[in-house]
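FORM 7B: Structural annotation worksheet

SECTION A. Query
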Amino acid sequence: MKWPGSADDLRAAYPDRADFNIKVLGGVPDTIQHWIGSNWEIRAFSENDVPDFLNRLDFYVYFHSKHWVEAFGICIAEAMASGLVTVLDPSFKCLFEDGAAYCDIAETENVVEQFIASPPAYVQQSNAARELVRRKFAIDQYPQRMARLYDDLELPTASVLKSSRATGSSYPSGIAAEDKSVRLLPRRMGQRRRILFVATNGIGLGHITRLMAIAERLSDDVDPIFFTRSAGAALVFARGHAVDYIPCGLAMGVTDTSWNRAYAQELLTAVEAFDVSAVVFDGNRPFPGLIAVAESRRDLAWIWIRRALWRVDHEFNPDAQDIFDIVIEPGEFAHDEDYGPTRDLPGTVAVPPLLLLDPGTGLPRSEAVAKLGVDPDRFTVAVQLGSQRNFDFGSLPELIFARLARRNVQTVQILNPLAKPPKEDGSGILRKSLYPLAEYFTAIDLLVTNAGYNSFHESVFGGIPSIFVPNEAPEMDDQHLRAVYAQSAGLGLCLRCSELDRIETTLDLALSEDFRGEVRRRSARLGFVNGAAIAAKAIEQLVFSIRADRPLHASIART
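SECTION B. Predicted structure
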């Protein structure tokens, strides 16, 4: 229905003339194939073709079926932004105003000929098209349009972002400067408080897992809402949380500057729309868009969940934590070997290791075995090496599976929900996509896993005999240190991807009853207090306190 509804109308919109060349990008429906003229060129669509396609046109003509109502017409706007003289049905005039030429479909040919005969008129209409798009639909119109929307919905006036020290005083990414004419209303606060949990897009699921661990231990006086760049947003929703997903710049194919500009406005809008009292951020480095909002909304509480065990050579700017009211550092089992740049920073609230599931609270063995799809009477080895999106383990996984196949064990490959689907290799290895894996520990006798924060601490405190294969990508935390520390403490084994000659002996040791019994015995002696509950309490205390260094009227709840 996005095409004219009859053969006569189609040929009126796109005349079958030798001196007219009708170009189509994206194909033509079968229902109108027999209507098209001999002067048509049809190209298949690919995402990089649009600018080239538009640059090769002189006119853009769009008429649709009388049974169709176009919601907006983004393709029309793109054509006008390219400076094409655009010919439309009069129904579009209220939206595109003087940026296009309007006529009944039967008059299309005459309108086109008039512009061909008058180059000055063509240039004037081309310029009008570009100006209309700039005036109504350019990105710098977004804050004003949002402000009008707030007025229409009778919401408190949207805050505007001040210039940010994150990228210099003028914030070159284009975030709106402070507008003295905008009246900032006191934040509404009801009996229950809302907290926005903001997760970055890590290589794995560590950031959103830690945030869920905290959110699920908050009191009933708090409503957690997730605002995440992580592709694991569906997992957050599956656990019953409200969640909004904002793709990262890399996934969208845009520059960091433009992404931060848009993200700041999205985050500010979420803060306003949900009327939140606090923002909890889990990520290695606060990015400019988040910093800009934090500096603009000092009436909120800002909390940073920042992992420890950075590599010694990692660069870290200690000023990054200045915009936060609290920096909470989840505990590390290998904390006494942490010599990274965050080790001695003041103002950090240290909590014990932080887990989504308390050890021993997973599924009963019968249920875990059934969901895992394994034989309960056989020894089970689970292999889970993360998403592998930033680190190539080489031939190590393949060799591990091959060595395990020679032994009387059943092997199941645990697929990370963010990993690319594996190619079918005919090996017959059982594959399962599970989250969180700790729920199924009762069905697993030996685990081969990476040494990321969650996997490592779940295994150590859960008493699961494990071989830790560290992800040693330069940007990662020091997973090798974690794995070596576990081995020195008798709570696991370390196997690096470069140590192919150690696979056989490592598996022999890991499968021995002596090793597995010693891991279980030593793990049982570890005292475990879930830092997620302590972090949740610290956040609530901040949220429900009244700041003495801020205006009282902006902090007291009103009824």
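SECTION C. Observations
Residues 166-188, 555-559 have pLDDT under 50 and may be disordered. The first helix runs from residue 7 to 13.

SECTION D. Sign-off
Analyst initials: ____
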